[in-house]
Design brief:
Blueprint (H helix, E strand, L loop, with lengths): L1 E7 L7 H10 L4 E5 L6 H11 L2 E7 L5 H12 L7 E4 L7 H18 L3 E4 L9 H10 L5 E3 L2 H7 L7 H10 E5 L19 H20 L4 E5 L21 H20 L1
Parallel strand pairs: 1-2, 1-8, 2-3, 3-4, 4-5, 5-6, 6-7, 7-8
Amino acid sequence: MHLKVYKSLWGMTGPLEEQIQQIHAAGYDGVECAAQEIQEPAIFKEQLTSAGLDYIALVYTEESDHAEELRRRVEGALQYEPSKIVAHSGRDTMSFGKTIRFFEHALRVEEELGIPIAHETHRRRPLYSPMSTLVLLRELPDLRINADYSHWCAVTESLLEDHREALTMAARRAIHIHGRVGFENGPQVPDPRVPQWEGHVAKHESWWDMIIAAHLARHEEFLTFVPEFGPPTYMPTIPGTGEPTANLWDVCLWSAERFRKQFKERTK
């Protein structure tokens, strides 16, 4: 099994060409960003091709008819030839029945369009908590997820000590990882590189180990990972100055390299 590490464009600044060149020079395998926010499709595709980078498309739904919007967003993203879709779709306010119908529709879209869809374990979305996710995964055996456990930490105000069953199920269904480190009171620690947060980093890595093991058990060809730390105000800031607590590019690069070492150790 091989690892592919993608860099999110979230928080990056400057001309797109410079961003792509910076990502390529840093040794990433690809780019992840919201397909519906790409301003110049032809230029974006040409720059990815020139740099030899893969693409994972993020799509999100905000309209009242989330099901039909999801289909439209996924269809629009296919022009960029993504390896998979990460879907921020649906709402945590939907009833259980409506949520089931929404994901059944999403599974039909995935099958009809022939593209893997990883649904976000994100606040505000149906998979926002380990409890709701466990119930939905039991009901929908073909549903696959993007594992961003930082949100579950914030929602449950814990390091998921009481949610082993949900973590086990999620590991079996995860086809992508957003490797941000969260804590009991938020979705992103101020700087994962400092000793204060070593325990939280190790806890997240133990959950990612479960995903690696599940991929190995299924004989998957690839595992994909994004060190998806975000800019202020997702990243905490210094009171009074608004300055970020860490350099976002450096944190993502550190996270990418650390996961590469973890993956190599677990798969050797």
